[in-house]
Write a structure and sequence with these properties.
- This protein has two domains: 7-141, no CATH class; 147-294, Heat Shock Protein 90, CATH 3.30.565.10.
- The chain has seven helices and seven strands, in the order H-H-H-E-H-E-E-H-E-E-H-H-E-E.
- With 297 residues, it is α+β, with helices and mostly antiparallel strands.
- The termini are far apart.
- The radius of gyration is 27 Å and the shape is extended.
């Protein structure tokens, strides 16, 4: 009987181990792909449910009246109901694209995930836009209360709250409160909403550098600014930036979502607070959005 040399035994064992490793790697890879694909399917089901909910529960106030742009009077009125319905159609189209990929056998994490993630971002944007539209429609006729607000304390709280968000975007956050800042009488929830919109925009359009929360007082006026080192706004567009549904040319060129409602709402809030808002900006250098309020009411 022919015997097998020890070297051949070692070689056979090595081959067997190698084959076993290949099988394990393939099985693990298949398992990972399945897990990732399962997550995609779960996210898809959630997105579909959210879209159906948005479609079936359109807020009644959207059919009440159109909204007018405040500065550009020649711009046609915006019908919030049509705006809402068009957003639903865009979301449904995204899911239809995904379904087409499934039907054609071209569905994979690479092809489906970008479309799905974009749809989820737009769902969240639509929910926020709906809330802002509701506020823009109802706020002008609402009665609001003014109470004393410790502005230094409020801005410090805002700084603390946003520090982690800013750091997560590889940016730095500064706070600059010049001199004595008195307590002012204002509506705190509306003030917070406006400043949060300013901060969200700064985070959205700033890729590098820093964001600064700044406040100063001059005689009977108090100024609060959010300053960023982001993409900036062209001088020719700065008059229109607070108009309803307006997005600057450069913001549209990015992959950042937006509806052009947030800054419009800020202008309504500022007016309700008895103040005004303004912007200073330089393209590719950054923007400074400022709320100016009366110190004494």
């Amino acid at each position: 009987m022919e015997t097998i040399a020890p070297s051949e035994v070692v070689w056979l064992i090595c081959v067997a181990v190698l084959l076993l490793l290949v099988v394990i790697i393939l099985l693990r890879r298949r398992s990972n792909i399945y897990k990732k694909y399962s997550k995609v399917c779960a996210k898809l089901a959630t997105a579909e449910a959210q879209i159906i909910k948005l479609k079936n529960k359109k807020p009644a106030y959207l059919d009440q009246k159109p909204l007018e742009n405040q500065k550009t009077k020649n711009t046609p009125q915006i019908n919030p109901s049509i705006l809402y319905e068009n957003s639903i159609k865009n979301l449904e189209y995204s899911l239809k694209q995904i379904q087409t990929l499934f039907n054609e056998g071209a569905a994979s994490n690479i092809t489906v995930t970008p479309i799905l993630n974009r749809a989820i971002i737009n769902i969240n944007l639509m929910q926020r836009t709906t809330e802002n539209l509701s506020m823009a429609l109802n706020l002008p006729s609402e009665k609001i209360k003014f109470t004393p607000v410790n502005l230094r304390h409020e801005l410090t709280r805002m700084y603390t709250k946003n520090s982690s968000r800013v750091s997560a975007n590889d940016l730095s956050l500064d706070i600059d409160i010049s001199g004595k800042i008195n307590t002012i009488k204002t509506n705190l929830p509306l003030l917070q909403k406006l400043l949060n919109e300013f901060m969200d925009n700064a985070l959205l359009y700033t890729k590098s550098g820093k964001i600064t929360i700044k406040a100063s007082e001059d005689k009977d006026r108090t100024r609060i600014s959010i300053i960023d080192t982001g993409i900036g706004i062209r001088l020719s567009e700065q008059r229109e930036i607070f108009d309803l549904h307006y997005r600057s040319q450069d913001s549209r060129a990015t992959d950042k979502p937006g509806s052009g409602v947030g800054l419009y709402l800020c202008s309504i809030i500022a007016n309700k607070l008895g103040g005004n808002i303004s912007v200073k900006s330089r393209l590719n250098h950054g923007s400074e959005f400022t709320l100016e309020l009366k110190t004494d009411r």
